[in-house]
Amino acid sequence: MITLIVLPNIYLCPLGLLLTAVGDTSLCDLMLNEGINVPHLCGKACVCSSCIINIKQGAEAIRIATNSEKALLVTNRSDSRLSCQSYLGKVC
């Protein structure tokens, strides 16, 4: 089980939130299920970058980015990921 801290965001989650999750769940789905209205204009198909998030800590608990995801990350921040493609748990 993994505990995630969603930092406060004035538009999406003003008070922040503590989430608990198990593996093989996307961060986008996890946040949507908890009522955080994460933008996902492409329907989580990895063809836009509206669901971009920044991982501040614990990136090792998230599967590595695919080439498709990397192509959509238009930022120079090394902690940026697409929440729809950020799945908990490593692929062996």
TrEMBL record:
Residues 22-88 form the 2Fe-2S ferredoxin-type domain. It comes from the Bacteria. GO terms for molecular function: iron-sulfur cluster binding. InterPro entries: 2Fe-2S_ferredoxin-like_sf, 2Fe-2S_ferredoxin-type, Beta-grasp_dom_sf. Pfam families: Fer2 (PF00111). This is 2Fe-2S ferredoxin. The lineage of its organism: Bacteria, Pseudomonadati, Pseudomonadota, Betaproteobacteria, Candidatus Tremblayella. The gene is fdx.
